[in-house]
Automatic annotation (TrEMBL), chain A:
Transmembrane segments: 58-83, 90-116, 122-141, 185-205, 217-236
Family assignment from sequence similarity: Belongs to the binding-protein-dependent transport system permease family.
Main localisation: membrane
All copies of domain ABC transmembrane type-1, residue ranges: 56-236
Keyword annotations of the record: Cell membrane, Membrane, Transmembrane, Transmembrane helix, Transport
CDD domains, sorted: TM_PBP2
Subcellular location: Cell membrane
Protein name per UniProt: ABC transporter permease subunit
One Pfam family, short name: BPD_transp_1
Organism placement in taxonomy: Bacteria, Bacillati, Bacillota, Bacilli, Bacillales
UniProt cross-references to InterPro entries, sorted A to Z: MetI-like (IPR000515), MetI-like_sf (IPR035906)
Cellular component terms per the entry's GO annotation: plasma membrane
């Protein structure tokens, strides 16, 4: 197995970084500003009940709902644009320019609209994550080879066959690239959404602990947020490898 | 040609006064490719088409397959003018064009799926054919795991499975090395004899044309308004050494001369 050896350099670097952090934090000795990694871990353990049973489920449901909406919306728009050139002309520039709007700065307005409910956070997550999914899937649908399309035509294939037998398989690798980016962004989206208005969630909890000058308790939920991002990324990677088996055998 | 009603003389492919030109998108004017061209191809013939690049050989295939429509004239396939010729012939492209995400048997099954067959039925039909095509045990491999010659055999199998009696092969062996190419030519010939199909084959290679075909069409001037035609006086089955017969060597000189003459103009 090469994967075990492959992560060794990265693991060593992280270990070195944590040791230096630990040493520096103990040297500075100001727990509320720079808590050592061991302090964060013990805080995580200490706060395990509220963190794991209250705030983690709240954030996770925002991420999962947000991503689900993004995938449906993003793939739907991508397919629609690929079917109709006039839809592409109308929507594509809007989608690109929508990314120029600082969505994070817009977040307060969603709190006004949706209140402190889960939906204000879901909207922020969706707005951040649907872009990479839409654009990648759309590019993927466009990447289908023209020669293969003509070959299918000579076999008597219609639009439906070309879509399912050529365009979708061509788009799949692009879709997964978009999804991987979206998954990491979704954690940011959920956390920011929670800062602005929430009664629960890891982002909310982290910010609340800041006001109490409890450095370790600010970091503890961030550890969990990172873990969510990493786990989701690995999950997508596994699904990708499974459905794109043909790519793995080099 | 008198109507003699013999099976062998059945016309499977016919061009009647076909005119075609490509439209230049930018300037708006059109480039004539074919001008009132007549072609007759009979059942179970092996025809090769030789000609310089850009002489309109591939355009001919695009017209036969139905990817392009003639400006004037009619194209008959098996004696009929079809509203859409798409799906009427078996087309084998220059590069194998196998789908990298499909296994070998799934790639071969593509025309059957397009025609609405069940995946499992298609699989059953394909397994014995894979054996016959020297692809036994490869059914679950992916195209990039196969050699160039093997990929071309898969591509040819896919063409055969179109079910059509007219197969159009567009320089199928041009990317292969010389030795693989020779064995593929022999292999194709046995397949053609066995399957009782009509093959139209584009090539640059005069030797390949002489070895394989009953008649050779030379694509020369542009626009093409008539084809120069050469009959190959070799009995079948043929051997590669047959190409060294004096009559064939003379014919080869003649062919090369014709092609060379056209390149200059």
């Amino acid at each position: 197995m090469t994967s075990g050896k492959g992560i060794l350099p990265a693991a060593l670097l992280i270990a070195a970084f944590l040791i230096i952090w630990e040493a520096a934090a103990r040297g500075v000795n100001m727990m509320f500003i720079l808590p050592p990694p061991t302090g964060i871990l013990s805080k995580l353990w200490q706060l395990k009940e509220p963190l794991f049973f209250e705030h983690l489920p709240a954030t996770l449901s925002i991420i999962v709902i947000g991503l689900a909406i993004s995938v449906i919306l993003g793939v739907g728009i991508a397919v629609w644009m690929s079917i109709s050139p006039s839809v592409e002309k109308a929507i594509y520039p809007i989608i690109i320019s929508s990314q120029m709007i600082p969505i994070i700065a817009l977040a307060p307005i969603f709190v006004l609209w949706f209140g402190y409910s889960i939906w204000s956070k879901v909207v922020v997550t969706v707005l951040i994550t649907f872009f990479p999914i839409t654009v990648n899937t759309f590019d993927g649908l466009k990447s289908g080879s023209k020669e293969l399309k003509e070959l299918l035509l000579t076999m008597g294939a219609g639009k439906k066959e070309i879509f399912f037998k050529l365009l979708i398989p061509s788009a799949l690798p692009h879709f997964y690239s978009g999804l991987k980016v979206a998954v990491t962004l979704s954690v940011i989206g959920a956390a920011i959404g929670e800062w602005l208005g929430a009664q629960a969630g890891l982002g909310y909890f982290s910010r609340r602990m800041m006001t109490q000058f409890d450095g370790a308790a600010v970091f503890a939920p961030i550890v969990l947020l990172s873990a969510i991002g990493i786990v989701l990324f690995i999950l997508v990677k596994c699904i990708e490898n499974r459905s794109l088996k043909w790519r793995k055998i080099e | 040609m008198s109507k003699c009603g013999l099976e062998m003389n059945k016309r499977v492919l016919e061009f009647q006064e076909v005119t075609f030109s490509y439209k230049e998108k930018k300037q708006g004017h059109s480039v004539p490719v074919l001008d009132s061209l007549n072609i007759h191809i009979y059942d179970r013939e092996f025809i090769t088409i030789v000609g310089a690049s850009g002489s309109g050989k591939s355009t001919l295939f695009r017209l036969i397959t139905g990817l392009e429509e003639p400006a004037k004239g009619q194209i008959f396939i098996n004696g009929q003018v079809h509203e859409s010729r798409l799906g009427q012939t078996g087309y084998m492209p220059q590069h194998d064009l196998l789908m990298p995400w499909r296994t070998i048997s799934e790639n071969a099954a593509l025309p059957l799926e397009v025609k609405g067959g069940h995946k499992e039925e298609a699989r059953k039909k394909i397994l014995p054919l894979l054996k016959e095509f020297g692809l036994e045990g490869m059914e679950n491999r992916f195209p990039h795991e196969l050699s160039g010659g093997m990929r071309q055999r898969v591509s040819f199998l896919r063409t055969v499975l179109s079910g059509s009696n007219v197969l159009l092969l567009d320089e199928p062996f041009s990317a292969l090395d010389a030795i693989t190419r020779l064995s593929m030519q022999e292999w194709l010939m046995t397949q053609w004899e066995k399957r009782k199909t009509t093959i139209v084959f584009i090539t640059h290679d005069v030797n390949e044309a002489l070895f394989l075909s009953d008649r050779i069409f030379i694509f020369s001037e542009k626009p093409v308004c008539s084809l120069q035609e050469v009959k190959v006086p070799l009995p079948r089955p043929r051997k590669l050494t047959d190409l060294n017969r004096p009559a064939i060597l003379e014919l080869k000189e003649d062919l090369l001369e014709k092609l060379r003459g056209k390149v200059k103009t």
